[in-house]
Write a structure and sequence with these properties.
Structural class of chain B: mainly beta
Oligomer: heterodimer
Largest sheet of chain A: 5 strands, mixed, barrel
Largest interface: A-B, 26 and 23 residues
Number of strands of chain A: 6
Largest sheet of chain B: 5 strands, antiparallel
Distance between the termini of chain A: 16 Å
Number of helices of chain B: 1
Order of helices and strands of chain B: EEEEHE
Helix content of chain A: under 10%
Strand content of chain B: 25-35%
Number of strands of chain B: 5
Order of helices and strands of chain A: EEEEEHE
Strand content of chain A: 35-45%
């Protein structure tokens, strides 16, 4: 799973019906900007955990949910530049 | 899911049965690399879209048996790329294509 920072919501009116009305968030993973389905209700500025591959679909709702990256948890506190 | 920009339509008459009659779009990612994705939404060149990859891309299509690993999930309403990757003219056209966003 990845640790990402939530940047802003992604608004996409013209999208496939499979996504339903779930929120999509733009998350930053290092230098890459990705889009994740928000299953926990995160706000911009949160540090979150994102899961990929087939687990992302179940986490987002059902086995047929077309997601390959889903936010599954909000980290309590996280210092990005401290070595852990 | 990644954010890519639509370059144009890919015309591919000779294809396997599994691709059916899906519309194929050429996309450009952050680094300027070209990708091909199936398109259940109906996009225009210049649109910024987010794509679903892997087996979830098959579920994004109307028919989940479509043999794709990358599908367009939707058109982003407003998107400004903060550092635009220099378009690499890999397809032989000399002048770099300047794509402005023609989203309505």
């Amino acid at each position: 799973m990845k640790i990402c920072k939530v940047l802003k919501p992604l608004v996409s009116t013209n999208r496939i019906p499979g996504f339903g009305h779930k929120h999509l968030q733009v998350v930053q993973d290092g230098s890459a900007q990705l889009v994740a389905v928000d299953a926990v209700g995160s706000v911009p500025g949160d540090w979150v955990i994102c899961v990929g591959s087939s687990a992302a679909r179940e986490a987002a709702g059902s086995k047929e949910y077309p997601s390959d990256l889903t936010i599954v948890g909000i980290i309590d506190d996280w210092d990005p530049d401290a070595e852990h | 899911m990644e954010i890519n920009q639509v370059v144009g339509t890919l015309y591919c008459t000779q294809r396997i049965e599994g691709l059916k009659h899906c519309s194929l779009q050429i996309l450009k990612d952050r680094k300027g690399k070209l990708l091909v994705a199936t398109d259940p939404v109906g996009v225009r060149p210049g649109n910024w879209v987010f794509t679903v990859s892997g087996s979830a891309g098959r579920l994004a299509m109307d028919d989940p048996k479509t043999m794709t690993d990358l599908a367009i999930g939707g058109i982003i309403d407003v998107w400004q790329p903060e550092q635009v990757a220099k378009p690499v003219s890999s397809s032989g056209d000399e002048q770099p294509m300047e794509l402005k966003d023609q989203a309505a």
